[in-house]
From TrEMBL:
Keywords: Membrane, Transmembrane, Transmembrane helix
Any single Pfam family the record assigns to this protein: DUF805
Signal peptide start-end: none
tRNA processing is among the record's keywords: no
GO cellular component terms attached to this protein's record: membrane
Organism from which the protein derives: Ligilactobacillus aviarius
Superkingdom to which the source organism belongs: Bacteria
The protein's name in its UniProt record: DUF805 domain-containing protein
Transmembrane segments: 35-56, 62-88, 100-126
Keyword Nuclease set for record: no
Length: 188
């Protein structure tokens, strides 16, 4: 299992690679392009497989049944991988983990699954961090919080030299620590 952290532009090949390697990875993020390239590959796989199995069932019955069984088993794999991909996509939009789990469970409730399917489609079309709020809450990440999907090194303060206020040369510049939540601290 590999943690998928898609950032920036994702090619078709990279999206397929991330989809297959992260088939049970529910952590990390997947971009819009990564999500939709993988979905396109799944649709193409099933269209080609359905046409192939239909052609074989009408001519060579045994071979057609074998192909149907292979596609049935691969459908289980692709269903699990698509669930992981959806988790990563929802997290990329800004949702936290617990609401995503509740959302996926509610998708199995008759009557709600149609509404949830439409909303899920809309969520996958949204850009990265669309639902990130000013302050963190139970549903979405906040701008002032550390991203739960990022490695802990990203949460560490960064040391930089502060620029002088005037053009007068200073023998030593103060050191300023910038924290992820926006705070600054000068170290003397």
């Amino acid at each position: 299992m590999r943690r998928i952290e898609e950032r920036g532009e994702v090619t078709f090949g990279q999206a397929i690679k991330d989809y297959i390697q992260g088939w049970v990875s529910y952590g990390g993020r997947s971009t819009r392009a990564g999500y939709w390239w993988a979905q396109l590959a799944v649709v193409l796989y099933f269209v080609i497989g359905s046409l192939l199995s239909l052609a074989l069932v009408t001519t060579v019955h045994v071979l057609g049944i074998i192909v149907l069984c292979i596609f049935g088993l691969s459908g289980i794999f692709l269903g699990i991988a698509s669930t992981g991909l959806a988790f990563r996509r929802y997290r990329d939009v800004g949702f936290k983990t617990v609401p995503i789990i509740i959302w996926e469970i509610c998708a199995f409730i008759p009557g709600l699954n149609g509404i949830i399917g439409i909303a899920s489609f809309v969520f996958t079309l949204l850009p990265t961090d669309q639902f990130v709020a000013e302050k963190e809450n139970w549903l979405v990440r906040g701008k002032d919080s550390v991203d739960e999907t990022q490695p802990t090194a990203a949460a560490q303060p960064q040391l930089t030299k502060a620029a002088p206020a005037a053009t007068i040369a200073s023998p030593s510049l103060p050191t300023v620590v910038f924290y992820p939540d926006g705070r600054e601290q000068e170290i003397k």
